[in-house]
Amino acid sequence: MITVIDGPAGSGKSSTARAVADKLDIEYLDSGALYRTVTLLYLQAGRDKTVFFQLLDQAKISFRYCDRQFHVAVDDAAVTDRIRTPEVAEHVSEVAALPRVRTFVNHLMREAVKDGIYIAEGRDLGTAVFPDADLKFFMSADIEERARRRYNERKPDNPALSLEEVRRNIQQRDLKDANREADPLKRAEDAIEINTTNLSFEQQVDQICLYISDLI
Ligand code: C5P
């Protein structure tokens, strides 16, 4: 069984999906973390696409959710701490727009969810990756609120970060994610829309838990 949450950066998908997974004791899948992991390979390749595709063909990417964190590894070496840097954030949307990258990540995800009960979050899960998902949500919130959330989340690990830099990065990524040719950020027609601008975190989590509890 799979529930998907799509939405733009900072809409609250990740924290909500994690809290739902913990509350209902189900598995959590963070598709953005996989695109970020692949972006590390792109940076490692010096942003040379030929070298990057070779690395992608050879790399073994593994992931698991435990202790409230989505862990990712490349060839069994943990990279979880390296995927949230400004450098990765700057390049991830250009990497995620490559059809070959999307095929790679989609395959990883579809294999992973074959067994178990999952909640997964991303941009195109309800439209392209899991069009037959049992439940689909689309989360949104206004840009100021999203920038503020991301800023508060990242600031402790990155003291030099400014709110303006975060807002700019989010706006640029939204634009690229929504306008790319391959599987753009889009609300599935049958997705339930949740605007989180004025909802408390608990309200968001409870709403989704109620829907899922009805099915399991
Ligand atoms: O969710 P997060 O902000 O970590 O995602 C990072 C980037 O990964 C997004 O800006 C987007 O470019 C890409 N992404 C995507 N499709 C998904 C999830 C993320 O293209 N399903």
From TrEMBL:
Keywords: ATP-binding, Cytoplasm, Kinase, Nucleotide-binding, Transferase. Its EC number is 2.7.4.25. It comes from the Bacteria. The keyword Ligase does not apply. ATP binds at residues 7-15. It is found in: Cytoplasm. One of its GO terms (cellular component) is cytoplasm. GO terms for biological process: pyrimidine nucleotide metabolic process. This is Cytidylate kinase. The gene is cmk.
